[in-house]
Fold these 2 entries.
Entry 1:
Amino acid sequence: MAIITRRTFMQAAGAAATLPMLGNKAFAADKVKIGFIFLGPVGDYGWTWAHNKGREQVEKELGDKVETVYVENVQEDASAIPVIRDLAQQGCKLIFTTSYGYMDQTIAVAKEFPDVKFEHCTGYKRADNVATYNSKFHEGRAVLGTIAGKMSKSGTLGYLGSYKVPEVVLGVNSFALSAQKQNPNAKVKLVLIDSWFDPPKEAAATETLINLGCDIVTTHTDSPGPLQILEQKKLYGFGQGADMSRFAPSAHLTAIEDIWGPYYVERVKMILDKSWKSTDTWDGFKEGTVKISPYNKAIPADVVKLADDVQAGYKDGSYDIFKGPIYDQAGTLKVKEGETMKLADLAVMDWFVKGVESAA
Amino acid sequence: MSTEFIIAAIVTIVGLTTPILLAALGELVVEKAGVLNLGVEGMMLMGAICGFGVTVSTFNPWLGILGAAAGGALSSMLFAVLVLELNSNQVATGLALTIFGTGLSSLIGLSYTGFIAPVFGSVFPASLANDAYLKVIFGYSPIVYFALIMVPVVAWFLKSTRSGMILRAVGENDLSAHSIGYSVKGVRYAAIAFGGAMAGIGGAYFSMVITPMWAEKMTAGRGWIALALVVFAGWRAGRLLVGAYFFGILMALELYAKASGFSFLPSQFWAAMPYLMTVIALSVISMRDRSGGNAPACLGKPFLPST
């Protein structure tokens, strides 16, 4: 149903004045539909939860002009295609596909619906009606790595990841390099569990990492499960995608929060005033897409200072963790002293830095 | 490798194994009665949310376990009515129960997201449960011991009790059991309810012990492994215990291989191992026993008495 705001009223009045026969048309105009494809359940308290917060912000700020629809638990395989297509057929004008694994499916459906705009999260394939957007999570990982490197007693850190995709590789490398700045001997043990959301496997993998000597474990999967294991073992970890401190009040040092709302609102506005263009957006601390949750009291003041400096450095552009010299796992020099990796190179990074122990 | 290292690894393996062992024990009894219930995953999720919900509301994990068993059993009754009264296709109805359980548990779970459940204390004195070495025997949740006790209980029930023999008779030849006066439907209702309750407790192990929280779809496919396990074990409770721990060890091996940086085998190979082993075990069993192994003769068939 159309809610009459001042703007629609003025449009209607203006239309009525000039074209009395068509005067009611402005009232009859339906709301613009915006679609969202979600990887996990909106109740995962992590990745999808954060995207859903963004969707709610769109509803809140633009609810008089748009309505949002979403589908959760969409698999990252061919079965995503009919789901995305269905949203387009329902009349969505803009569809956000919010995980890396929807990349080819988004491009495929976008070809069928040239008038519908698509936005794919964390991918790199674009088209005239497909934009991409991403968050510089690795900037947040640099803060976590700084804290972990300084606070770890064993110098062995755990990293629980999902798949070997650029986003995770960047996160691992940023975390390891930052930790090594604080403790040159810091090692990062990496487990990729081949899933974004599998609480029992995440829990078992966390136990495994702890047993192999890790005293701080950071997660790049979406459930708070690992934090609860760390809480039971009286060790430390970090939240992923959202503040998860309620699940592990003492173990939760801080978290990287994904703030998608402002971007979603901006892009939906562009649909409304028809200025939408296919772009490639990669925002971080500076733009407010990456945020660090309140620190745990267990973090000493000098470590808080170090962590804040990293954040401030990213905000004013003076800090970058991907500055040479950087060596790969085999010890080969990949980035020379004085050089900094370009964003385009980061986006396709597929090798781990020295000090990362992984099976692949 | 130190003793502490091995103990910690064993604790992880027990955690991975217990829920599938519980669910598989329940399904074993259901299948012995001649019913194939593919809804294990759905019943586990119903048990997980009911157990969690009751625990959060009453602050009593023991009541939570009862709630989990009730949640699993009640959802299985939906399947039972469709399959036993209306003779609907068991495979399709079981799959529907999985979808239904997933959806309903998510719906109920909406109001429980973000809570943490109080956990079980140990049933043993703290000096035993928290000892660095003895905890490998005494340091687990009561559900772990319950699962282990249920293995010989189920084996004994099926093999040596009159009720167990009637249950097997119903599963092997429902028409004969019916003609000599046993209630085929009654036995199957009871078996399905037991299977639901066990799956529910198995599901609650996720939401009440491993990670005391609720997250949608948190069982992440363990119900399907439990189903494979029943076949893998050749419908025998003893073998089920061995098989469950074998699967648990394989799952832990995958994680240890990855975390230790072993790259002589791709990690996907480890992840595929439980399923690969099921295929191999099935081939071996069917080669040894041409009559189709131990599968109950009426498994999955509707009961249609002439009178």
Entry 2:
Amino acid sequence: MRFTRSTAMWLVVAFAAPTSVYLGMNQTSFGRDWQGGVTGAQEKNPDQPRPERRHVGFRECVRCHNSGVTGDIVLPGGAKLALMKEQWVLYKEYPIWAEKDKHGQAYAVLLNERSKSMGKLLGVAEVHRDPRCLACHTGFPLSRMKPGKDGLVHRDLEKDLDINLGVSCEGCHGPSGDYRSDKVVLLGWMDPHQIAPKPPYEQAWRFKSPREKQSQYGFYDVRSPASKTKLCVSCHLGDVELGRIVTHEMFAAGHPPLPGFEVETFTQQMPGHWVEFSAKSKQVRELFVEHTKDELYARKAYKRDGLPRTRSMLVGAVITASEYLRQVSQLADEEVKSPVRRPAWPEFAAFDCYACHHELKSPSWRQERKPAGKIPGRPALHDWPFALARIALKNAGVSRGDVDAPFANLRDAIYRKPFGDQLAASKAARLAAAWLREKGLEIEKKPLDKDDGIAILKDIIATGSRETLDYESARQLVWAYNVIDKELRSEYPGAKKVHALLEPMGKDTLLLDLRKYRKATIVVGGQRRTTEEVDLHIVLPFVSSYQPAEFRKRFGAIGALLK
Amino acid sequence: MKSPLDRRFWLLAIAIAGVCIGVRRLPAPHSVAANEQREAGSGSAVQFVGAGSCSASACHNANFARGATGSEFTTWMARDRHAKAHETLFDERSARIQKNRQTATPAQDDRRCLGCHVAPEFGSASPSAPAYFKTDGVSCESCHGPAKRWLPIHHLDAWQRKSPARKKQLGMNDTQSLVGRAQVCVACHVGAPGMEVDHDLIAAGHPRLHFEFAAYHGAMPGHWSAGKDYARVNRARADGRDAQRGQAEFEARAWLVGQLVTAHAALELLADRAGDQKKTWPEFADFDCAACHHDLWPSRPKSKSAQRGRKPGSLSWGHHVALTPMSLDALRAPARAEVRTVLAELQKIMDAGPARRIPAAKHATQAAAMLRAAIARLDGRTIRDASLEVAFLQLVAEQTTRHDGPYDERMQIHLGLEPLRRALGNGPRAPTTGLSVREFDPLTLRRRLELPRK
């Protein structure tokens, strides 16, 4: 059974109370003419070998997701009609994204001064036309932007809103249109996702399993923390197979360093354009748990107070570590194909920036640490992806010996000589990544309770007060602490005093604050836009001035409060 | 006078040595040290006699003033830090280095260390060499060559009439010519295959190698007659010069020759590292430390000359060859245009980052061979004021345009300015750096040379 758009709309609307608001929506004002353009043209291109769903574009999404309803409707006579009691869907996803989410500026920054200067140094005429940049700086599929002979995509693409709005809806949720050819039909999720949860619920989009949504309709699973994290870090760390690689050359030309990633903290900074499941209304939650085929939310597995954000943070940490190692393995494995020109090994970007990039001075805390690979001076892998992953694994009951096993091989391969033994390192990293992934998926299935939360808090503090951590690892711990603290609503002994100690640290150096920016005006596709650019003058000195001894001391003091 | 038997013996030895060199000529680049070893060794073990054999009071231990003839041993013993080269292996830092390298062998017994902290040929020395030889540090034979075969005859009149090449066949290195002298130094101070201060060693705590021949030469308490050095330079001048000018010109020449010999050593080392698949590539020690070792900072706009076509993020290579073309010009060395071309190509490969090792090995080998040929025909060549002046002005220009270039390169420029300026006497003047070799330490110098950061 295929639903027409209007039927589907009607069903959505019928379920959401009240319906009147949506019935008044002028559906005809959004014609489908904009779908012509690049997308349509390229689909007919016989050179396009792989069936890929059509990127429909944000205009289709805003038909529903732009209502921005904030208050109740006042009826004639003064009575109020409450809106959106259901709270499954916010319906103001677009305005939140458009106003606050920096993903919407991802493309525009390719036209700023920094990008221009990068282009000059890299010998790229226009970085906003270079697929290596577009792979992350727009959510539009890379495969639909074929570069010309000069290696750059067509100049006119700059004017296409679906490209120049950066990472928009389908960048993270998946291309939503159908793919049809003589041989293959791939349905997109645009139509089915509008099927409302009406009894008997068989077709209801909401209750389908994430796996079905992904495999049948190409809807990316952003509910599962593991899947969501993997999606985020495909840009925030990189993914060779997707052409998302920030090379050392790009960094050297001026690309800002990629900060360590923590899925819950980053999500909060976006900010989220959804209602957390635990915050949705009771009625909608119960109905969902009753009917969903999502095993993470099935009746047995789901607990409302199961610290979902803490769990997401832990799963995210393990998956981030896994993805980082997968990336290392891909970079070291020349057999791995990439849609963009891939860098040769050793690619310095696979390693910890600050392993090399620090002033030469002695004595220094770096020299007091045990070198990662026993022998000092070998480029080291990033430490930060493992800071929280270790805590997550420990909390999941994985023994220290089991954690160390897959990493022993990796360490040996990576540090046997400078840049590692390429083949052995690639293999060991791939295996360790797979092992971590498996563990991450296991952790994902287990709800936590309050005691777990407090135990993890304590473990975070113990780690921070015991180890000499680098800047990014320290930041991971502070972020994670805040995630758990918030979810526990600071209901544990000593919380207030801990805040007093933690807050100044957060303010001066360690908190992620995407608002530390300077405003800039950029002309994109003929439109003037205001963007917020990372101010490296604020951010980078934090790294240079960071003192691990001070951090350890403060964490020690916090630990004393929690005892 | 030699007996006929003597002469036959030496002819035979030379013939054998010749055959050995011919047979053992390797396609791969080989180091100065290895060359010396091959030529001196004639297949048998290198034989040292120890500094004690030189220190008879009637020979080199007369205890006169510093540098005076006859008190070479005394000067070295009392003032030259080379004498402490082995002793330093007992100190706390050396112990730490070994610990970091995860080796249980104490530094004072580690062959890896002894090649430079005692003698390049140490590893191949005859096992019968006296054990106390190690404790001499870098002593007479470390630079002058294993003396077993020349010790009994080097004080004879006949010895003085032998050519440097013949002396070398008997094991004595040529330290009279500037080229020969510099070649002795670079084996350790730049490095040679098997005698390397690589990044692993530096990260373990070994100081990074910095070298500029003239500055080091000037800082070393000489145990030879500087007057003879100056006189030799004057003799080489077509127009003849007074003794005072001799010194200034010697220094300028030392700087220029030092540039070439150093470049040659660096190229041979690079060729070896790039050509040997078992070795680390890239080897960080080939590059400017500060290329990586700086805090990340909001990018400062780099001048075009600092970037000089270098791919962003590639390591800064080339401080040992940056001034080679200029030095070749000033010395009017043969085939300088060809060297320049090969070096430019090599620089391009190294700047493309990550440098491809096979082309790098090929070009480095080629450049080293050409430079070796040029250096071999260098000594005794006259330098004209005009070419010195050109070199000087070029350095001044480099100093200005490359003010934000790599640290090591700026160091070489700075160190060349002073000797060239002095050699030109009343010629054009440039700001002097006032830097001495004592400050040749990256940690302090980097701060002095660099503009304060904002």
